[in-house]
Amino acid sequence: MNKIAQQALKSLLKIRPNLSGYRQKNLALKYYIPCIKYSYSLSKINSPQFSSNASSYPTSLIICLSLLSWLGFTEEDEDKESELIMTLKRAVLCKQQEKFDKAEQMLHLALRIAQQQQNDQGVIYCYDLMANLAFDQNQLDKAEKLFKYVLQILLGKGVEQESLEVIHISLKLARICQLKADLDKAEIGYKWCLEQIGKQKDDKVAAKVLYGVISDWYAQFLLDKGDLKNALIFLNEAHKACVQADGEHSSQVVLLLNDMGITSFRAEDMVNAEKFLTEAIEIGKNLEDKSHLGVVHANLGLVLLQKGILAEAQKFCKEAWQLGKRHENIESMEQANYCLDQIKLNMGK
């Protein structure tokens, strides 16, 4: 696997956390629910000034997928810093700075360059980035139309339905259906992706990683439906894929263990809830990025509160607040304050 392919796989493990609470028995624990935020390996290779903010976030599992390595770009292309690649880099930088209108202008310019060069791979990549940009702005209809167009081009060029390119775009379309509340179509899409990737998940690293993506997204879909039993099964599959791709001690593993702990809590399995969250904290202590670790501490505090272990619950909630303060993480501080408020209420009973 060349350097760009390796970078593309690494980009699969990037997520910007989108926290949402869940209330049960007067407690709210915070998930790291994947929202589809994309970072592009194109903007990172040999270009520190274009490094994505996403790389500084802790990660759940694979929420972004670049077509770069699969669409014919090579390390030599990067070294040449061609007009097309430089324009794409500028577009990505604008997107990272949330200058969305400027990013779209740059992508249209890149598309014209690719068309003039008769660079089919470049054309497809431009449309893929446009689709991702639309999605990031919650322009779901536009994103859906663009992703379908990319899919149409790929299939028209003879790309097989079971190819990773087709599967990953189909996964994005399933996610869009979910967000548009078309749950039946979303479920059909997720299951099709699982069926296709299941035939090849052990064949190569990229397929194994994409299997983790699909498992994670489908687990979140099942959580939205309240299917906790099956959600845990697919979270576990995502966890295994994450460990295989990135090792046992990573931010990705921490956030998956967090989700597994909260899902166990929702299923009233306090033993596993405590186990998963404790494991997440132990791993997180040794990571460089601890900015979101406070949320996991607060979640464990709420689980311990539910078990009636007030002193330990208070300890973890205080640690959560301190971590949030130290790393200027609002979610951690809010969750810690909520945890401490719940402890006070219970002490007053």
Automatic annotation (TrEMBL):
It is found in: Mitochondrion. One of its GO terms (biological process) is mitochondrial respiratory chain complex III assembly. SUPFAM superfamilies: TPR-like (SSF48452). Transmembrane segments: none annotated. It holds the Pfam family TPR_12. It comes from the Eukaryota. GO terms for cellular component: mitochondrial inner membrane. Keywords: Mitochondrion, Repeat, TPR repeat, Transit peptide. SMART domains: TPR. Belongs to the TTC19 family. This is Uncharacterized protein. It comes from Phaedon cochleariae (Mustard beetle).
